[in-house]
TrEMBL record:
GO cellular component: membrane
Family membership: Belongs to the peptidase S54 family.
Gene3D superfamilies, alphabetized: Rhomboid-like
Domain Peptidase S54 rhomboid: 89-181
PANTHER family xrefs: PRESENILIN-ASSOCIATED RHOMBOID-LIKE PROTEIN, MITOCHONDRIAL, RHOMBOID PROTEASE
Keyword Chloroplast appears in the UniProt entry: no
Subcellular locations according to the entry: Membrane
Record keywords, A-Z: Hydrolase, Membrane, Transmembrane, Transmembrane helix
Record-given protein name: Peptidase S54 rhomboid domain-containing protein
Amino acid sequence: MFRSQFASFQSRRHFSGGHFDKYKSITNYRNTTRLLGGIVTVNVVGFVLWNIDRIPSDIKDRISAETRKRMPNWLKANATNSLRNFREGRWWTLLTCSFSHRDPNHLIGNMFSLYTFGTVFAYLPRGIPIVATITLGSALSASGADLAIQAARETPGYEQASLGASGVVMGLGTAAAALRRRFSRMKLHVSVRQNRKADTLKPPLGLHSLVSSPYHYFFYYQDTSLGPFCICMMKDRVLDTPPISGARLSELFSIFSVYEQNSIRFLMIDT
């Protein structure tokens, strides 16, 4: 009888007594934050490569002068999103541009936001694949939208290029805010319905592509610097904190998101 009860417990895995196993929750949190730390590290390495001439001389002297000279052009060809790179077959730039920063303020703002929004998913049972999916999906959708805008505004003799993780930040931030409505049930435990399929707070994985794509138009091409904190969840109090904007506020881009029983509705308003 004990074995049958133990087997039944094993079949339910970590869902026991209506709660998510505390040990596995903490372990999942640590692994997800390690993934976020790895993403931040990759972005920092990209920033160092862009500013290789500004690093301390004792480290810079270990790198050949020829390598330092070629580095900017190599990064432009492999770590920026542009029509030229795409047409010449360097399709990987759709992804690598989101891990590339030249300006320190740009890097610090994006990495702080990315890590802050990403930790929301660290409490979920499958935090690592969720963060990875949203990160990659947001990067690709934002780059695709950026290329479409570049093609529409292409001017002979003038080459446009973009870089940075702003699209990824918008995707993570919006998905995290959409979960905020039910976040009070998470903490270290995830409430589940007894004798029914576990309710594990399914994240809106498709929402990131709808937000990170228009982000480039509303904030990069319309002379706005609202930054990654521009998400305003006001209708349903999905996000309880007020929006934080940059120095110049020429537009307000509000996203009203509702997450109810696996259905997502969102509205973008430009005022």
